[in-house]
TrEMBL record:
Origin species: Sphingobacterium puteale
Keyword line: Cell outer membrane, Membrane, Signal
InterPro entries for the chain: SusD-like_N (IPR033985), SusD_RagB_dom (IPR012944), TPR-like_helical_dom_sf (IPR011990)
Chief place of localization: membrane
Domain SusD-like N-terminal: 25-257
Keyword Coiled coil found: no
Sequence ranges assigned to domain RagB/SusD in this UniProt record: 327-632
GO CC terms of this entry: cell outer membrane
Family designation: Belongs to the SusD family.
Protein name: RagB/SusD family nutrient uptake outer membrane protein
Length: 632
């Protein structure tokens, strides 16, 4: 993107925002006299340079601070030494913590004090990206761009379509992101005059989603599947993977409709806590259009093989290659690949073998969602079950293959290379009760360690995060597996059937789930779950929990399903057990344990107000139509 990005500085359209304190100040910013709109927008190179800045408004949430928190459901818990992250505030019911006024460390990615889109200082500017500021800044910039689209006179029709399509996509995307956390918002689709007070009312979720859908739909119609196949895109041939395309627009069109059709959003708009079938039908069609293009070979997107699934999240030894490969659908740019080293690569490993203390733990009750290789769920981790094949004395045996990819469990060989003889005892994960990897401050307090986003060798002995390994971590916003599962959910709830499907795509809801399981090597959905949509829904939810684990989806899933306040989703647990017999250091899944049980570490005390985050007091004080969310 560098070819275009230079134009931002040349034309002087990099809008300063360091002193802006609220959405009001982003939206009514006075015109800057040093910008010539005729020059800035006259041709594709200049206009694309202007548009490129919107990509820098996509927050890299997995590398925005020294250590990074983005899993806020019942899936993850912080160590007791790291109580400044937003997940800790959420656990306490303090949802004000997303705001920088309540974030003394500046550790969050939803609101920062010195927002910038500049890339000239890697270690300073990576922490100055945040959703709240970026969304309002971006919406102002988009409105200016669309208002000046008629000045794009020195351009082909293809180039005009590319510019307008990107602007429309980002307008829908920024609104969708705000709606996801705060509910219906004003829809900013024109330049707000600087000499008029803001009076735009908050819309219902459905009204806002309808406007976003129109933008996503038009963007999908204007944009190509692959920029490399356009004349304009050949200027940056082979470097267009992050540019907004038809597939991204269709993916978010479907997601926007599915979210609008989900119980929480439907309840806010209509008072009904059921799924909204019409919105689910629209989501099904959007996803069906996308998946038909993918499966007919018209795109570059495909599910990664299980052996390479880590490429969705990190690359190593590939000259800092951007993670995502063929499966990631939407990602933002990065400032410097090596920022992965400064926190994220070291936040998961216990102090015993890590360069720093462990920050984030998968909860034991969440790990239980990783069922058996047969495809069946585990009913109770403390009890053997003949039907599924689960054995409580061998709890790590014959599990869903994704369990072994994502989770470090007791006995896993963590250190691969040399280590001092006196420290050999820590080569394998000692996660049994009283083991050296267990510590509530610096190690695992739950009995598990997360490995999904890092090589197993990210420890102080193997040094997988050293500069020479080129480790680059980036968790995508959306990938193809998510689209399959969103399609499944939308199709089943639109038709009230486990075999519901789109008119423009041949596969049913359960087919889509099984495609994801086939890649993983897990068994298909059992026939006992196929009698109705209601019977399949718990398995669909469990499949999302496993396939998309720790990627930042769970909190919003629980919210939109109206489950955030409901048991068992309000507790976080640890597992305890004792090793017995001869320790198998070659295949830890074969190790026998006794006295396995789970204990509650924390129980969240949520009420209905916690389904939406509170808006800033100064913003809701601007005018009555921009009101606070209920209960705050």
């Amino acid at each position: 993107m560098k070819k275009y990005f230079k134009v931002i500085f040349i034309t002087g359209v990099l809008w300063s925002s360091t002193s802006l304190l609220s959405c009001n100040k982003y939206l009514d910013k006075e015109e800057q006299s040093n910008v010539s709109s005729k020059e800035a927008f006259k041709n594709f190179i200049n206009f694309q340079g202007y548009t490129e800045e919107l990509y820098n408004c996509v927050v890299n949430f997995s590398n925005n601070y020294w250590t990074n928190s983005w899993n806020w459901g019942e899936d993850e818990i912080t160590s007791t030494a790291n109580n400044f992250h937003f997940v800790n505030k959420i656990d306490q019911g303090n949802f004000w913590g997303w705001q920088r006024e309540f974030d003394g460390w500046g550790a969050g990615w939803m609101d920062q004090g010195d927002f910038t889109t500049r890339n000239d200082d890697v270690f300073a500017n990576r922490a100055f990206r945040d959703l709240w500021s970026a969304a309002w800044f971006g919406l102002r910039k988009i409105s200016l761009g669309l208002e000046n689209i008629d000045k794009l006179t020195e351009a082909t029709q293809e180039e005009k379509n590319l510019i307008k399509g990107q602007l429309l996509f980002f307008r829908g995307w920024f609104h969708h992101r705000l709606m996801e956390y705060f509910g219906g918002m004003p829809y900013i689709n024109y330049v707000l005059p600087s000499d008029e007070k803001l009076r735009l009312p908050r819309l219902s979720y459905h009204a806002c989603a309808d406007l976003a859908a129109a933008d996503f739909r038009e963007a999908a119609d204007l944009l190509p599947i692959d920029w490399d196949n356009t004349t304009a895109g050949k200027r940056t041939l082979g470097k267009n993977q992050l540019r907004i395309n038809k597939i991204m627009a269709l993916a978010y069109l479907g997601k926007n409709y599915l979210w609008a059709g989900s119980p929480l959003m439907n309840f806010q708009s209509t008072g009904s806590k059921a799924y909204h079938a019409d919105y689910c039908k629209k989501a099904t069609q959007a996803f069906g259009e996308l998946l038909s293009l993918v499966e007919s070979g018209q795109t570059n997107y495909t599910l990664l093989p299980m052996a390479n699934i880590h490429l969705n999240f990190y690359t190593t030894g590939q000259n800092w290659a951007m993670p995502g490969s063929t499966e990631a659908i939407f990602r933002g740019p990065y400032i410097d690949a090596w920022v992965s080293n400064w926190g994220t690569s070291k936040q998961y490993i216990p102090l015993e073998v890590g360069d720093g203390d462990l920050k984030f733990n998968p909860t034991a009750n969440y790990v239980d969602y990783y069922g058996m290789k047969s495809g069946l769920p585990i009913k109770d981790i403390t009890q053997s079950d003949v039907e599924s094949g689960y054995n409580a004395e061998y709890p790590w045996k014959d599990r869903d293959p994704r369990f072994y990819k994502d989770i470090i469990f007791d006995g896993v060989k963590v250190v691969q290379g040399n280590m001092p003889e006196k420290e050999e005892v820590d080569r394998h994960a000692n996660l049994y009760t009283g083991g050296s990897y267990r510590d509530i401050r610096t190690g695992s307090q739950t009995g598990y360690v997360l490995r999904k986003f890092i090589p197993l060798t990210s420890n102080k002995y193997d040094q997988a995060y050293s500069y020479g390994t080129n480790l680059h971590i980036y968790v995508p916003y959306m990938r193809l597996a998510d689209v399959y599962l969103m399609y499944a959910e939308a199709a089943m709830m639109a038709s009230n059937s486990a075999t519901g499907k789109a008119d423009n795509y041949s596969r049913t809801a359960v087919d889509a789930i099984n495609i994801v399981r086939d890649r993983a090597g897990a068994g298909h959905v059992d026939s006992k779950f196929l009698s109705s949509a209601a019977a399949l829904l718990p398995e669909l939810r469990r499949e999302r929990a496993v396939e998309l684990s720790f990627e930042g989806h769970r909190f919003n899933d629980l919210r939109r399903w109206l489950l955030l306040t409901e048991a068992p989703y309000t507790v976080k647990k640890a597992v305890s057990f004792d090793r017995v017999g001869v320790f198998n250091n070659q295949d830890p899944s074969q190790n026998r344990v006794v006295n396995i049980q789970e204990n509650i570490i924390l129980e969240r005390k949520f009420t209905n107000k916690h389904y939406w985050l509170p808006l800033k007091v100064r913003d809701v004080s601007m005018y009555p139509e921009f009101y606070q969310n209920p209960g705050w």
